[in-house]
Amino acid sequence: MTLANNTTITPELVRQHGLKPEEYDRFVKLLGREPTLTELGICSAMWNEHCSYKSSKKWLKTMPTTGPRVIQGPGENAGVIDIGDGDAIVFKMESHNHPSFIEPYQGAATGVGGILRDVFTMGARPIAAMNALRFGAPSHPKTRHLVSGVVHGIGGYGNSFGVPTIGGEVNFHPRYNGNILVNAMAVGLARADSIFYSKARGVGLPVVYLGAKTGRDGIHGATMASAEFDGKAEEKRPTVQVGDPFTEKCLLEACLELMASGAVIAIQDMGAAGLTSSAVEMGAKGDLGIELDLDKVPCREDGMTAYEMMLSESQERMLMVLDPAKEKQAEAIFRKWDLDFAIVGKTTDTLRFVIKHHGEVMADLPIKQMGDQAPEYDRPWVEPKTPAALGDVPPPEDLRAAILKIVGSPEMCSRRWVWEQYDSLIGSNTAQIPGGDAGVVRIRGNKAIAVSTDVTPRYVEADPFEGGKQAVAECWRNLTAVGADPIAITDNLNFGNPERPEIMGQFVRAIQGLSAACTALEFPIVSGNVSLYNETNGQAILPTPAIGGVGLIPDLSRMATIPFKAADEAIILIGGHGSHLGQSIYLREALGREHGAPPPVDLAIERRNGDLVRQMIRRKAVTAVHDISDGGLALAVIEMALASGLGASLAALDHRQLFGEDQARYVVTTSDAGTVLAAARAASVPAVEIGTVTSAATLNIAGGPSISVADLRAAHEGWFPAYMAGEL
Amino acid sequence: MKAKIRVTLKTGVLDPQGKAIAGALGHLGFSGIGDVRQGKYFEIDLAETDKVRAREQVKAMCEKLIANTVIENYDIDLT
Amino acid sequence: MKAKIRVTLKTGVLDPQGKAIAGALGHLGFSGIGDVRQGKYFEIDLAETDKVRAREQVKAMCEKLIANTVIENYDIDLT
Amino acid sequence: MKSAVVVFPGINRERDMMLALETVTGQRPVAVWHAETELPSVDLVVVPGGFSYGDYLRCGAIAARSPIMQAIKARAAAGLRVLGVCNGFQIITEAGLLPGALVRNAGLRFVCRQVRLTVENNRTFFTNRMQTGAIVSCPVAHGEGNYICDTETLKRLEGEGRVVFRYAEGTNPNGAMNDIAGIMNETGTVIGMMPHPENMIEPLHGRTDCRPLFESLLAA
Ligand SMILES: Nc1ncnc2c1ncn2[C@@H]1O[C@H](COP(=O)(O)OP(=O)(O)O)[C@@H](O)[C@H]1O
Ligand SMILES: [Mg+2]
Predict the structure, then answer these.
(1) Is residue A438 over pLDDT 50?
(2) Whether residue A363 has its Cβ less than 6 Å from ligand 1
(3) Which of A171, A584, D43, D94 is the most exposed place for a label (fewest CB within 10 A)?
(4) Are D32 and D58 in contact (CB under 8 A)?
(5) Where are the domains of chain C?
(6) What's the pLDDT score for residue A237?
(7) What is the pLDDT of residue B11?
(8) What pLDDT is recorded for position B74?
(9) What is the CA radius of gyration of chain D?
(10) Residue A279's closest CA among A362, A194, A206?
């Protein structure tokens, strides 16, 4: 981009910046004149979907975001919750979908870097990371390369930065062929009384640039993140952002030192639309103007223009408002960590965003209208179609073959190939690594937090409202299953083109479903991210509102895990027998159909059953716990056996009981079935003893097949490595 | 025939490794060091004996596998 | 002056990356591929203008940092 | 037992190591910043795991040339005990305190998992509370832990009992020669190992197999 700042703005230029003609008209009216090129760039970055949430804001405002433990809800870099003893947990999830499709390693790596920054900008040390990934069909020619690059990139960044990655999700579906989803979540620990915010305070205070130098990386990345792919995406080859986890680790340490020094008045990481959005956000939130002198910005390359500097998405950078009395001390901290520190501007009382370069004013914009008063739309939407009734689903011809097929399917097989590439142990506090219902990290003493990410996109596709409820309920259930009190969630709402009323309908109904579940389960949303326009050639992704939940375990000695513990213990199904096969894994993997309605979620029952399970964990009445989700009861029991090496002998169960995906259910084991069944009866929760743990490593279903755990393991562990080695 | 391939980052793409090496060289007392860029180097033995065909073959390898052409350039030497 | 440095593994040192690339090239349908070896490549801008002194300086950099002479060889090109 | 833990930029398991040392030995180690040129007076220096300088160029290469390593080398030559774990092993090997090199895992991927280690030599400052031949569980978390050296060196390491830990029962995660997981120098004062014993010392870690290693420091 070598156009001069006073270039005449043509409709073509406006179009290239992703602004609709009416949006541009609004901008011109706001200014009372034609914008400069730099101003156009700033506007396109701030008013695009990614930064302005213009299509989603109306609906995000309807979500439940408050609760007794919420210190900071949506609106900051991350949400903050109170976990007692003066401790706070800071967490958020964010997408890096489009960049990861273009360059999977760097796209995923910088996604992890970005979300870690969001968390430590608020004064928290990251203590856990998660990632929710959706790829196209395994048979699609790009899938293997994308899986390999994304996983490698997430590990490459997180491992080097030094945060344990303790969980996540991986799905494959042809609807993600042209638009993969890479949603990364980070969780940090801070003191509740020293959280840092982005709202600037005080006039005439120095605005300081921290971290790495600015290059020509990802210019227009924020715009790209909101643009639909048209099959030519690969030819466009925008300048890819390269992550530098080493610099980020230094930035973390320097920022935490700086915050402890008392020098920070406000701080904001530079994420999408870098310097532009961080400065606008700080100013707009604080009702202050910001003036920047770009001559002071540390640049990696010669001859960068104002336009380029304002739109660069170089990573590992921060902006802060500094207490001038602490300038020397602050600078010394950054020098020690070999990072850039430059005073690049000041706060003003003009409510203008003024950019100077080589002594000339390159942009002069009203800051509020660029930031928190950006345009907002009420997009038309239509009610999603109700799925056709499913009718009877036949049993499998060969139950043994069906079980082995499901256990070894891309959707249900072990993700070990993925998570062994992530350092899940660093910090010495990991109490549960990936593979269980939730990752668990100790805070100190016996206190720990549990983290889980969940959504079942095929359910949301079939019924956005029920699917939205289910995503939250499953997350709540996973936290419950390890013995945690679920506290709050973050979300990452991945959808197609919101300008299509059907897609907007999915979005609206899913949000209503999420909200209903959050309200009923007292599980508020404290942060999140929206990724729209996930479409290629008019084909949208499955609607994917990923939920990342955090729960509190007050006493680690009362945490539950999924492996069977001892032979002869009773296996009890909490929540009663299932029968719902619409949208089930059985239907899809064994019968090759994706039909019917998803299992409905009764939130009152969900809560009642979960509360019972949690109580039994706390009373040490149960020895192993696993929630029932994809694949139903059969898969839950098999996963418990696989995690332990012990077997199970089950009563006679039909295919609906084995594979039904009815909600609000758990499998538990106990040496004292009487107590558990009595507790369930007292709580009016259906509970059935369905079998016994056996020392023989075999899954035995009365009147049905007997399958060795070794065979189950071979199927379960086999698919991922074989697929990635190109053997499938 | 042997192909020698150098893969380098495109101009403007951040090179954290190069940056770290430049810093370390400075600490070790080397002076007058400007930009440092790190790339990759490959040597491939080929059965092909025709230079033109070999170059085409190696070019295809670079495009498909050896270089990440989103962020890297490559050049080929045949001997 | 610019130094271009290639760092390669000594003969006899296993090169799993090279082997993996050879395998992947095979999977991609390339034939007649023999040994593949992966190394590193560096470009360093130098203030030094004298070729002899520059070579000495770069040689010292390689010995002290850029190559691990336990397992690697290096060679230097100056332009 | 007074110990110091060296911190380079990019090192990230220093907290784990300090916690383990403090938990087992009862004394909080001193953290030593890489830019320092002097070591405090201690009985043991630990170079912990992480990604010093991003592990750019080669793992441990840049850290090995830092000022503090010159001090460590001098003190090691005078007999000070040095333990390098993971990146620390790579750093002290790059610095020439141990022979050979650590290269990319044979599988070409980072691996975080439990392995089994055989204690091959219990006459060291880090293994004297164990039996030779004992097998312990221990996690690894690295991308470049594949130990290699020339045949001459390998012969000496094996012949002189300088292989301290070996991956047991087919759990070699990285292709290291002779399943080598940890070695020591000629005098037994410098030990380097890829696995992370500091992550296997309390019930939270699932097992406490590596606690005796840290207890050995008290006897030494
Ligand atoms: N789906 C959502 N639910 C709740 N809050 C959201 C959602 N999407 C975005 N937010 C909130 O909006 C704010 C802006 O989000 P975003 O632009 O993604 O943050 P950042 O600038 O840190 O990348 C954040 O506070 C975020 O938590
Ligand atoms: Mg942010």
Answers:
(1) yes
(2) no
(3) D43
(4) no
(5) 2-78
(6) 39
(7) 86
(8) 96
(9) 15
(10) A206
Task: Name the residue with tokens 């978390």.
Answer: D141
- Strands laid side by side in the A666-670 sheet: A624-627, A666-670, A570-574, A687-694, A647-650, A698-701, A706-708
d(C-alpha A158, C-alpha A154), whole Å: 6
Contact D112 A245 (CB under 8 A): no
Q: What phi and psi, each to the nearest 5 degrees, are found at residue A412?
A: -110, -10
ipTM: 0.93
The alpha carbons of chain C give a radius of gyration, in whole angstroms, of: 16
Please say whether the dihedral angle defined by the alpha carbons of residues A23, A28, A34 and A37, taken in this order, is positive or negative.
negative
DSSP state of A556: G
CB A489 within 8 Å of CB A472: yes
Please give the pLDDT value at position D128: 97
For the stretch A40-66, what's the b/e string if a residue is b when 16 or more beta carbons lie within 10 angstroms of its beta carbon?
bbbbbbbbbbbbbbbbbeebbeebbbe
How near does any CA of chain B get to the CA of A527, in Å? Answer: 31
Q: Is the CB of A575 under 6 A from ligand 1?
A: no
The finding on whether A313 has its CB within 6 A of some atom of ligand 1 is no
Distance between CA atoms of residues A292 and A162, nearest Å:
34
Residues from chain B that touch C18, judged by Cβ atoms under 8 A, are 42
Task: State in Å: Cα A134 to ligand 1 middle.
Answer: 21
Give the distance from residue D112's alpha carbon to the nearest chain A alpha carbon, in angstroms: 5
Q: Which residues partner with A548 through β-bridges?
A: A453, A490
Domains of chain D: 3-219 (3.40.50.880)
Yes or no: domain C2-78 corresponds to CATH 3.40.30.10: no
Residues in chain A with CB shorter than 8 Å from the CB of B20 are 246
Residues in chain D, total: 220
Mean pLDDT computed over A490-507: 98
* Alpha-carbon torsion (A436, A442, A447, A453), positive or negative: negative
Query: Across chain A, what does the average pLDDT equal?
Result: 95
pLDDT in tens, A546-579: 999 999 999 999 999 999 999 999 999 999 999 9
* Unique residue bearing structure tokens 């090192």: D11
Chains that touch D (3 or more CB pairs under 8 A): A, B, C
Query: What's the whole-number mean pLDDT along residues D174-192?
Result: 98
Closest partner residue to A301 among B12, B23, B70, by Cβ?
Answer: B12
Residues 6+ apart with CB under 8 A from B35: B18, B22, C43, C44, C45
pLDDT at B51: 95
Distance between the two ends of chain C, CA-based, in angstroms? Answer: 6
* pLDDT of residue A478 exceeding 80: yes
- Using DSSP's 3-state secondary structure scheme, residue B5 falls into strand
Task: Tell whether ligand 1 has an atom less than 6 A from the beta carbon of residue A74.
Answer: yes
pLDDT digits (tens, 9 = 90+) for C32-56: 999 999 999 999 999 999 999 999 9
Q: How far apart are CA A470 and CA A602, in angstroms?
A: 9
Q: What is the predicted pLDDT for the residue at D188?
A: 97
Element (H, E) at A719: helix A709-724
A191 backbone dihedrals φ, ψ, rounded to 5° = -85, 135
Give the mutation candidate from D55, D56, D58, D92 for the C interface (greatest C CB count, under 10 A).
Answer: D58
From D67's Cα to the closest Cα of chain B, the distance in A is 9
Mean pLDDT, range A171-200, rounded to an integer: 97
- Range of weakest confidence among A53-62, A234-243, A359-368, C70-79: A234-243
CA A150 to centroid of ligand 1, rounded, Å: 23
Tell me, yes or no, if D202 is annotated catalytic.
Answer: no
Which token pair is D211? 């606690």
Residue pair A464/A505 in contact (Cβ under 8 Å)? The answer is yes
What confidence tier does A236 reach under pLDDT thresholds 50, 70, 90?
very low
Instruction: Give pTM, 2 decimals.
Output: 0.95
- The answer, yes or no, to whether residue A233 has pLDDT greater than 80, is no
